[in-house]
Amino acid sequence: MALTFEDVQETALISLASRASESARPNARITDPVATQIITELGVDVKKYDPFLSHEGVIARTIMFRDELRRLIAQYPDALCINLGCGFDDKFPSVDNGLIEWYDVDLPDQIASRRKVITDRDRCHMLEGNALDGSWTAQLPRRSMTIVVMEGVLEYFSKEQATTCLHMLCDSFEHGYLLAELMHPTMAKNTKHHNAVNKTNATFGWGIESGEEYVAVEPRLTLVSETSYNEEMCKWSTRAKLFKLVAGKLNNRLGVFSW
Q1: Who's near 147: CB < 8 A, 6+ residues apart?
Q2: How far apart (Å, rounded) are the C-alpha atoms in residues 122 and 125?
Q3: 3-state secondary structure of 184
Q4: How far apart are alpha carbons 233 and 59 in whole angstroms?
Q5: Dihedral sign computed on CA atoms, order 8, 13, 19, 22
Q6: Could you confirm whether domain 52-258 is CATH 3.40.50.150?
Q7: What pTM was computed for the model?
């Protein structure tokens, strides 16, 4: 089955375009064969979805989530890992240690589209599930530690939806870590100023100034760390350093929570 443009939400094209164009560079910081395959198959002109700052943010995010996952998997080598709201993201090959059990979870229509370009692998499975309803978690094997990734997901949720999701995770798994993308309230209120998302019909949801705001609505969580994407972006670009000086506090962050 071939992918069609209707299979891919426009917001997904932003990260896919950035990861595919980065993969094609001679000194690529990350490589993503799935993103390259999808962009090639769709024949999409990626330019409007891949402006400079958005590109740098996506690549920084990809590197930071990957490195944090590797750190946690080294600490919990047989963890159950869940990429919740996975879209077309394929993290498993970059973090697999030969022991983890990995599930890519998303809504049924997204999983159906994903299966057109990605197949299940040993210890890596696709599963239909809703981030606001934990019924799907009953199908998962139980491990002593669960690591949940929500990259590019929670910033589109309202406060009520995010709260429901956080409750669901803590109810469903006795112990876990959550790696989540966090967005500042100023950015959440100004979708129209995001230089890639404003090319789509998407709107941001609940923005937070600190990860402690998640702890306030779900007290079982503990904020482990919160790191701006600036930290990675500034390693690679003078323009990113200038952005940090001008509006750096508004950039998205990787929040790590435990329970």
Answers
A1: 69, 72, 73, 76, 79, 80, 81, 82, 176, 177, 179
A2: 8
A3: coil
A4: 8
A5: positive
A6: yes
A7: 0.91
State the angle between helix axes of 33-42 and 10-23 in degrees (0 to 180), rounded to the nearest 10: 120
**Tens digits of residue pLDDT in 72-123:** 999 999 999 999 999 999 999 999 999 999 999 999 999 999 999 999 999 9
Domain ranges within the chain, ordered by starting residue: 52-258
**Phi and psi of 141, rounded to 5°?**
-70, 155
Contact 132, 160 (CB under 8 A): no
pLDDT tens, 148-201? 999 999 999 999 999 999 999 999 999 999 999 999 998 887 644 444 444 445
Helix (H) or strand (E) run with residue 180 in it? strand 176-182
pLDDT (0 to 100) of residue 195? 45
DSSP 78: T
Bridge partners, residue 222, by sequence: 258
